[in-house]
Structures are given as C-alpha cells and as structure tokens.
Amino acid sequence: MSQRNTSTQLAKDRPARPRPSERTTRAHASWWDRIRFLVLLAILWVCGLAVVWTTSVHPLGGPFSDAVRIALHDYAWIIWLAVLELVRQLHYLIEEHSPGYYRLWEKKVFGGFASTTGNMDPWVRYRVARAFKAFIILLALSMFLGRIFHTEPVWLGIVEAPGRLVVALPMLLQLAFAFFFIIFQFIGLFWFLSRGGIDVIQPDEIETRFEDVRGQDAARNQLKETLVYLEQPKEIEDKGGQIPKGILLWGPPGTGKTMMAQAMAGETDKPFVAVDPSAFIQMFMGIGPLKVKSLYRKLRRLALRYGGVIVFFDEADSLGSRGAAIQSGVEAAISPWAPVASCNGLSFVSEAGRRVVFDATMPPPVGPHKETIMMGGMMGGGGSGVLQALLSEMSGLDKPRGIVNRIRRVLGMKPKPPLKYRILHIFATNMPEALDPALRRPGRIDREYKVGYPHKQGRRDTFDKYLAEVQSDISPEDVDKLATITPYFSGAMIEDIVKEGLVIAFREGRDTVTYADVVKAKQMKQHGLPDDHEYIERERHSVAVHEACHAVVAYRMRRHAVIDMATIERRGDIGGFVASIPPEDQFVEWRSERETDAMSFLASLAGERLFFEGDHSTGVGGDMRGATAIVTQALAYYAMGDTIASRTVNLASLRAAQPMETGADRALFDSEFGKAVDAKLHEIYERAWDVLEENRAEVLAVAHALETHKTLTGEDVTAVMEGTRGPTVDGRSYKDAGFGQMLENYHTAVVRAHKEHGGVASRIPVPVPPSPVALHADEEEDERDRVQRAALEPGAPPRPDPS
Fold it and tell me: In terms of domains, do 440 and 303 share one?
C-alpha cells in the first residue's frame, strides 16, 4: 500500500516537460548525432582515395602522397561538405548554450522563412520539397559515380553504372546476377509494400501535455504514474519488478484516448511510435507479418538507443481476433456500453453456475446453421497473420537475437543473454470486446483504463479550455450551465459545439461567442437542423399541445431529469419533441424514476384525449412504444412489478437441461405477463391524466409559447410554468387570468376546426405585457441579485450598510 502511495505521489510531483515552443535553447544532441555525417563523409573520401590509388597512382608506381593530393583535388566537394557539417554542428552547439543566438535563428531567420513559405499551397510545397530532395540525392550519387568512371559530363555517372557493372562480371556471374535480379524484384516488391503506416516522433516534437487533457483525471494520473516507471526502470528492475509492457485505453469515441497518448509523447523523453490503424491492411497475404517484424526491429533499435520507446496502436480493434471473441463467454455477451448499471452478480457464483446463467440468458439460434468456408489465396486482407505476429513479437522480446548468436549456436556455444528492450505498448479502442483474449492477458496488456464520458467538473474544465481559444463573453455561471446540459458529451463533442458556436457568431456579424450561440450549436449538433416545414394552423396547435403535455408532466413529476429543449419544428419524420437531460451524474435508476419516464411518454395520449374530447392522433405511436418498452423491461428484468422473476432466462436453453412444458404453457405465460404490462400502463396513464387535468392552464401556456417561438429552452419552459422571465420568453404574461381565458377560447376554436376539418375561426392570442409595477419590481430584484453576486466575488469591496 505504501509503495502504491509512493508511486502515486511521484506521479503527482513529476514536473511537466517544457513544450518545444517554450524552449529558450536547443535540445542537447548526443555525440553520435554530432559526428555521424562527418564519419560518413570521411568514409566516402577514403573510398575515393582508394579508387585513385588502385586505378591511377599504384599501377604507375607513384607514391601514396600523390594519391592523397589527387583525392584532395578530385574529391574537394567532400571536404567542403565536411566543412559545412562542422559549421552546422558548431551552430547547433552555440544554440544549445546561448538563448539569444537560438532565438535569433529559430524565431527570426527560420521562423520568417516558414511564414513566407506558409502562403504556398501545402500539397505543392510538399511535392516541391520531395522532388528537390530526390534531385539532390541523385545528383550527389551520380557525381560520385562519375568521378569513379571518369564520365563526361561528371553528373552522368549514374547512367554509366549499370553498363560498367554488367561488363565487369564474367558470364556465369551475369547469369547469377540475372537470377538474383528476379528474386530481388519480389523482395523489393514486398519490401516496398511493407513500408509506411509507422511514424516515429522524436522527443520535443509534439506540443500536447497532460495538462491539455481535461475531464479524465483518473486515467491521466494513472498514465503519469506509468510514465514515472518508464523513466526510472532500473530502480524498479533492481528490486525484482518490471515496468508495465502494455496499456489499454478503451471508451467511447472522442473521449481523449489519442490525446492522452499524444500527451505521453509530449511529456516523455523517449521516442513515440504511432502506428496507423490501416498499416496492417494489405492486398497480398504475408505483408502484414512483414510489417509487424519491421516495426519491432525499429522499436528494438530505438529502445536500445534511447533507453525506452512508446508505441501507440490507435483503433486497436482493427488488429482483428482469432475467433475467440465470438460469444465464447460471459465477457462477450455483456457489452461495456450497457445502458443500465448493475452489480457483478456473477462474481460469487461457481464456474458451472456462471455457465448456466450465461446459457440461460443467450437467445436461441434462429434458422438453420450454415457452415461458411473461406477460400485462401494471394489476396490476404487485414488479419492474415498480423495478430499472431504481433503476439509473438510482444512475447519474444527476451529471446536471443542476431547473427553472433547464430554463429555461437553453430559452434556449440551458449547464446549471449538478450538485451533489455523497454517497450511500452499503448492500445486505444472503443470496442474492447473485439480484442483477442491472448492480447489482453497480463504480460502483454498489464493495465486497462476506461476513458469514459467526462463528469460535470470535467465537462466544465473542457469548456474552459476551448472557450479560452476563442473570444467569448460567457460567464462562469453560464459555463456551469453548459456543463449541466451536456451529459454524455465527449471532449471532441464539446470542442465541436464551441467551434460551431463561433461559426454562428460569424454568421450574425459578431466575433464574440455568447451563451446563446453555444446552446444553438448544441441543439443543432444533437438534434439536427429543422426543415422549415409550416403546419396548417389547427395541426400546429395540436402538435404544440402534444409536446406541451410531455413538458408539463416532465416538469411537474420528474426530478431525475430536467427539460433541455422543447420544439415543434419538424426534423424529417419527427414533428416535435421534448428533450431532457439528467441534472447530475447518476449511476443507477430507480423504480419511481422508470414509472415517471413512462408517465412522460403516456402524457401525449392522455393529453390529446383530454384536450380533444377523447380523440387522439397517430403521433402518439412512438410514445406508446417507448412507454411499453420501459414498463416491459421494468417488470420483466428488474422486479418492478408484482413478481420478481427475471424473464431474461431463456426457456429453450433451460429446457435443454431439463424437459419442460412447451407451446401452450409458454404462450399462456407470456399472455399473463402481457396483461400485467397493460394493467401497469393503464395505471400510469390515469396518473398522467390527473396531472394534466390539474395543470390544464400550464399546458395551454406552454403550447402557446411553442406556437409563437417554435423552440424553447428548458429555462423558457420553466419561465412559462412559473410566470417568470426566461432567456427568450417572458412567462409573466401567462399568469394573467384574462390572457388565460383567451388561450382557452383559441383552443376551443381549434377543436371545432379539428372536428369540421376547416380553418380556425380565431387568431392566436398575443400575450399581455406585464404591468409597469411588476417590471419595476423585477428590475429591483435583478439589481439585488447582481449586488449579492458581486459581493461574493473574490476581492469585492465591502457591501454598504443598509442603514
């Protein structure tokens, strides 16, 4: 326990690495990075010297000093390149120790050049740069070969090279060369196809840090702790431990899994290797395993050079499975996205008991079973040996490797012990059940972290982060409201609605994002755009009454969810809806909450019959399906009725273990259950009728607000119900008795038009403006609230004495 606390404290105390943009000097280079090009140029010059000595000086009996003199003259370009490399390394050395010199070159010289070329089209700039690099490499190679072959002009050396090679070989070697050339074509083809899809990010090349990850504090702190282990491996290994080899980040899309991996790349001083999800999907069979082996050769080299390496597999479910995940256990049957939480009721049951429970809850097979035969061939696809190769490489890091060990085996000697490759694997997926169990076992994936939807505080922090990137006048109170009305929103969704709010502000000629802009963006992203359909007047009123009944029952009876939005604007086949959100993060649901949800559904049927004299429309069909589904599930699965038996038990599977009555008994059993569901629905329906009858005036008030404004926020619905001012609706007029009678008269006219299938004889009433006294009282109340909020702010001056 103390070791756990110590490691957690180390993770919390670990300072964040500076971002590349925050550096005041250049990162220090290793000695090999400083001399590798000088070594290469020295080797090239020595090769040129050897050519001069063997072809020009030695056959004529000249001294070796003549060969050196000729090489210095003929290969002076290598000397100049070496001088330029020395100047470059001296330039880097000064940048590593002088902040002013570093700022001059990186910010002004190279930064100014980058801003100049930044106006060029990115694709054109990329193609031009690649063509220029290829031209320089080919020109240098050709000039080197031209010096050897003495071609005129000298830059035609690469053209002369194949002919010289063929002429220099004897006949048999020419045949062997042709034979091996054919083999090399296949080798080159497979090598070429096995390239790509793997990006190596060196330290200090990425800006993302752990502080950029918002709303995922638990997973972020665990990754920090793992990072400490990776940076201090010897202390752990000396005590007999080992660093984690693999981490699985799983959760819904957009919750920050990839950003966490990028933050690890930004925080660590180890290389970060990102593997493209489609890297192993190849046309020919066998390319995938070759890519895996190539990847691990690169990982082993990087791990030895830097003392460790991090490899990230995004969308890890694309690696495939060997078939073990096809309904082979309870894990495959229970989805991680189960909407209803429950306890782990199988943990205290024996293995045989778990198998019985699982078989009883599985649906029986439907239709005849057909065996599928898959033909093999050259066309391999994505999963042809990729997973097997990956599992083998992950577990084979400790086996002896290299040509030296092969020679030692041939000589009967014991191979040298393998080197320690500290490779940390990070897998990210939103379908963890699709991963092979062999991949998820300890030793390959040691830790699994769920990256779920952020809680309210996390959503608030995420809004603060993205609102800071734009110009806005959204107060902390409004940010708290936004966090409340966006349950189950991921970080990507929050970023999207903030950026969409900026687009809405630009469309209206503003560059400042407001609370209303973000709310509009949320409604548009969550529910789509309305299609501007215009109802006929009597149908518009009936749709408004329909939605008002939902809203009134939800407002009066439901406490586990609040109204987020009510609208009668049509979106496709949906004529209108009332959307609700939970005011707090709740883990389980209760019987009373389920019944209130069903009552909210049945409010449309009860309301239409109440307000249209027993008649109702086909628009209640979807609500009846919802109410029936809720009640059926509550009675059948969660013991929320008169019986406690769970109907998840599959009668067919139980009958296989013990013969039971079939046919008529099962139909009778289900028929009795159907009667119980219908009786429960009638009971809830009567309760909804009573609520609507008691709040008839509020239903007509909300319906009128929907007809005049088309879309209301939850705060507007509250304003209409309570007679207060809302963001877009002034609900004080609806408490006027005279205006309430006008709404009754208008509704009566609509009912008459509905019966006669004609036009409405009355015009929709106009709200009565509040009296000046009421307006003055509201203004005084708003001023008192403003003064009280100002007094609670930090650093506020003391409030004046009321006397």
Answer: yes
CATH (domain of 462): 1.10.8.60
Question: 3-class secondary structure for 200-269?
Answer: EECCCCCCCCHHHCCCCHHHHHHHHHHHHHHHCHHHHHHCCCCCCCEEEEECCCCCCHHHHHHHHHHHCC
Give every CB contact of residue 467 below 8 A, 6+ residues apart in sequence.
474, 479, 498, 513
pLDDT bracket for residue 83 (50, 70, 90)? very high
pLDDT at residue 63 tops 50: yes
Residue with tokens 């597999």: 313
Domain boundary among 450, 480, 499: 450
Task: Provide the token pair at 762.
Answer: 């009355």
| Among candidate residues 198, 213, 257, 222, the one with its CA nearest the CA of residue 432 | 257
Residues 327 and 438 in one domain: yes
Q: Does residue 607 contact residue 692 with C-beta atoms inside 8 Å?
A: yes
Pairwise CA distance, residues 426 & 246, whole Å: 6
Query: Do 581 and 444 belong together in one domain?
Result: no
- Determine which helix (DSSP H) or strand (DSSP E) holds 608, and give its type and residue range: helix 591-611
Q: Which two tokens stand for residue 582?
A: 């939970």
By percentage, how much of the chain surpasses pLDDT 90? 12
Q: What CATH number does residue 355 fall under?
A: 3.40.50.300
Q: Give yes or no: residues 651 and 545 share one domain.
A: yes
- 543 and 407 fall within a common domain: no
User: Taking Cα atoms as reference points, which of 122, 141, 144 lies closest to residue 133?
Assistant: 141
In a domain, 792, yes or no: no
Quick one: tokens of 752? 């008459």
Strands 577-581, 562-567: pairing is: antiparallel
Q: Are residues 673 and 540 in the same domain?
A: yes
| E strand spans, 606-692 | none
Q: Are residues 433 and 460 in the same domain?
A: no
* Distance (Å, whole) CA 394 – CA 305: 19
576: Cβ–Cβ under 8 A, 6 or more apart, which residues?
543, 544, 546, 547, 566, 567, 568, 569, 570, 706
Tokens encoding 745: 């008269």
Which range has highest mean pLDDT (90-94, 211-215, 661-665)? Answer: 90-94
User: Do 462 and 385 belong to one domain?
Assistant: no
Would you place residue 377 in the very low, low, confident or very high pLDDT band (cuts 50, 70, 90)? very low
Domain final position from 479, 499, 526: 526
Q: Is pTM beyond 0.70 here?
A: no
**Paired tokens of 710:** 């088309």
- Residue-number span of the structural domain to which 165 is assigned: 13-177
Contact predicate 327/362, CB 8 Å:
yes
- Count the neighbouring beta carbons within 10 Å of the beta carbon of residue 158: 17
- Give the pLDDT confidence of 388-436 residue by residue, as tens digits: 888 888 877 666 666 656 665 655 555 666 667 788 889 998 888 888 8
Q: Tell me how many domains the chain contains.
A: 4
